[in-house]
Design brief:
heterodimer, A: 226 residues, alpha+beta, Gyrase A, domain 2, Cyclophilin, 2 domains, 7-stranded mixed beta sheet, 4-stranded antiparallel beta sheet, 5 helices, 27% strand, disordered N terminus, B: 315 residues, mainly beta, 7-stranded mixed β-barrel, 10% helix
């Protein structure tokens, strides 16, 4: 491969470490489905999908790279993507006020939209969770209206509240935990979407359908925990 | 036995084994940054190798025992005192109620492990007792220990023998390290010279060095990503090279997904060493093809199995 170029769809399995094999596939849903199916076999230590790739970690003390590559290759041929129609639909209540969405007015100004129009556009469609990652439970929600594309903040926040909702690079991000973050914030949900001590810690999963439902700050205040 | 923290040091946390099989949910590994040293300490007090213990960072820790028990210290090179008297690392120490243990600052290496017979009594969260500080869960209330905190150990069924780690199984903390590494997924985004230099530079660990990751200084690389890579899975041991050209090595608490070019991956056999790197240390990457790295891993397992039968769980 020439330096600086890259095939978009490298559908062959390749090593990216002595115990890591990867495949590149343009469709995020195929990457997720592949990771899910690999995980079900119990043959792998970790199976993680990215936006356009899937990486599987194997036990290099007992499995050779060639064998791992073969297993991944044969799995690629059998991937079945679940139809969107049967994916679980989650409604996420969001308060789009200037306090919950500290960057909302900035974002609207950049996009040349009123706050109301922004909210209408953001809540007016159904999305799909591309992946969880970065931090526990952080959801990358795909399918943002192209007219709402803004870059990340040049200075990431050192701390934002759990439930914060940001947009950047064509996606909506749901910060399920308090912590640092660089996406411009447009709102916040009072819902607890990740609770490490709960029996089912993750309310969101890759592949789920998501709809954002606008709520008032009063309603937010009554529902937010703590 | 109960143990009261007197001086917590820079960052002392409860660490055990990693969280496994949860990276697709965004949950990082966590666990001992140097799992081999954790296991060596646990071995000396008769625990299973990944029982919860204390991990110190650069500075030490001091504590008072409120009961009788057994303790062992391994990891970075540091002075250890029991009631003011020098005692040795790498051996089982019997302690009594009222005794005070002081682990000094690390002179070489970054982290010490203090294991207690029975292990620290902490319930698992998401499959491990290990502390994950960025999200505040696991370990002792999801945070680093503070002065006055009291931790408890689990009941011990059998009294451990008083033993020492044999000399040939005591890793020596260094200030210069050679880490074996394989090509990363995007190594081809480096130009020819950079690719060569990556494995021919004496890097210095920068001040940004913690359980999330460590900055490499000493060389800058040209990456042809244009800042437009799709977010992709990363792992402990992944070396990313952002557009500023400065490589960054991910450690045990690293995020699960990253958007920077992955230029190299520390070989599994040497990943446990990442936990002992400290600012100012020198690091050289030794290139390995994947098959050779796997052979060297098996050889390392064969060696360590003589003292740690379950070594394949750690390295």
């Amino acid at each position: 491969m020439a330096s600086g170029t890259r095939e978009i769809d490298r559908a062959e399995a390749f090593a990216c470490g002595d115990d890591l094999v990867a495949v590149e596939l343009a469709d995020t849903r195929v990457c997720q489905a592949l990771a899910d199916q690999l995980r079900e076999t119990g043959d792998w230590i970790e199976c993680v999908a990215g936006i356009a790739s899937c990486v599987a970690q194997f036990d290099s003390a007992t499995i050779s790279l060639d064998e791992a590559r073969e297993r991944l290759k044969s799995a690629i041929g059998q991937v079945r993507v679940t139809d969107d129609e049967v994916a679980v639909l989650v409604e996420v209540p969001v308060c789009y006020c200037g306090v919950c969405g500290a960057d909302l007015d900035d974002v609207c100004e950049k996009l040349g939209l009123s706050r109301d129009v922004f909210i209408e556009m953001h809540t007016g469609r159904e999305y799909r969770i591309d992946m969880l990652g970065f931090t526990p439970g952080f959801a990358f929600v795909g399918g943002l209206d192209a007219a709402l594309n803004v870059p990340r903040r040049t200075e990431p926040r050192v701390r934002l509240e759990s439930g914060s909702i940001g947009i950047a690079g064509g996606r909506t991000g749901i910060y399920t935990l308090a912590g640092p973050g660089g996406w411009p914030l447009v709102g916040r949900t009072p819902a607890t979407l990740f609770d490490p001590s709960a029996a089912e810690p993750f309310q969101l999963r890759a592949g789920m359908r998501v709809r954002f439902v606008p709520i008032s700050h009063e309603e937010f205040a009554t529902r937010v925990p703590g | 036995m109960r143990i009261r923290v007197i001086k917590p040091g820079l960052q002392t946390t409860v660490q055990a084994g990693p969280r496994r099989g949860m990276r697709h949910l965004g949950v990082p590994a966590s666990g001992a940054a140097d799992p081999l040293s954790l296991a060596l300490a646990n071995r000396l007090v008769g625990n299973t190798l990944l029982s919860p213990a204390l991990e110190t960072t650069l500075t030490g820790v001091s504590m008072r025992f409120e009961g009788d028990g057994f303790v062992a210290i391994t990891g970075a090179s540091a002075k250890v005192r029991l009631n003011g008297e020098r005692v040795k690392r790498h051996r089982t120490l019997a302690v009594s109620a009222g005794d005070e243990l002081e682990v000094g600052s690390a002179k070489a290496g970054a982290r010490n492990y203090v294991a207690f017979a029975g292990g620290v009594a902490i319930d698992d969260i998401l499959g491990s007792a290990s502390t994950y500080l960025p999200a505040g869960f696991g370990g002792y209330e999801g945070r680093a220990l503070q002065a006055g905190d009291v931790i408890a150990t689990r009941q011990v069924d059998t009294v451990p023998q008083l033993i020492k780690t044999p000399g040939e199984f005591r890793p020596r903390a260094a200030t210069s390290w050679a880490l074996r590494a394989c090509n990363g997924a995007e190594i081809d985004l480096l130009d020819r010279q950079s690719k060569f230099d990556l494995f021919d530079t004496n890097f210095t660990i920068g001040h940004r060095a913690d359980r999330m990751g460590l900055q490499f200084e000493g060389a800058s690389f040209k990456v042809a990503s244009g800042g437009q890579l799709d977010s992709a899975p990363v792992f402990p041991g992944t070396i990313q090279c952002p557009e500023d050209g400065k490589p960054f090595l991910l450690s045990i608490d690293a995020q699960t997904i990253g958007g920077y070019p992955r230029v190299a991956q520390i070989a599994r056999t040497d990943r446990h060493l990442i936990g002992q790197l400290r600012p100012g240390d020198h690091v050289r990457l030794l290139w390995r093809d994947e098959q050779s790295a796997a052979e060297e891993l098996r050889a390392k397992h064969d060696y360590w199995r003589q003292w740690l039968p379950d070594v394949a769980q750690l390295i």
